[in-house]
């Protein structure tokens, strides 16, 4: 089941996934992972047999685009296509919300994943929290 987070339990499930993937696995500081955009973002969670498995969020960015952030899948669920499901769900909801497309700062190791979803890298690789990233855009037209 995939859905927009609607209550505190689902929000805690989402934060737990993010803490595991970004803080514990990738070494991102917790105070950088939990940021000022939490309350204005739409958080998405995917459950596998009632267990939290994958997350993402999106928020208003600029020029009519939404920004996708914090997409993560727990290790035991990384072979199920859940990252793609989360991204497709986010893009569907963003389109329904009237956005022209979505942008993201994707980790460089996932660049090919995002390109398969239609994203185009813009500019040079850069570091965010000491992790290489690319700025990428998907237009809905």
TrEMBL record:
<keyword id="KW-0808">Transferase</keyword>
<dbReference type="InterPro" id="IPR000182">
    <property type="entry name" value="GNAT_dom"/>
</dbReference>
<dbReference type="Pfam" id="PF13673">
    <property type="entry name" value="Acetyltransf_10"/>
</dbReference>
<comment type="similarity">
    <text>Belongs to the UPF0039 (ElaA) family.</text>
</comment>
<dbReference type="GO" id="GO:0004343">
    <property type="term" value="F:glucosamine 6-phosphate N-acetyltransferase activity"/>
</dbReference>
<dbReference type="InterPro" id="IPR039143">
    <property type="entry name" value="GNPNAT1-like"/>
</dbReference>
<protein>
    <recommendedName>
        <fullName>GCN5-related N-acetyltransferase</fullName>
    </recommendedName>
</protein>
<dbReference type="InterPro" id="IPR016181">
    <property type="entry name" value="Acyl_CoA_acyltransferase"/>
</dbReference>
<feature type="domain" description="N-acetyltransferase">
    <location>
        <begin position="2"/>
        <end position="141"/>
    </location>
</feature>
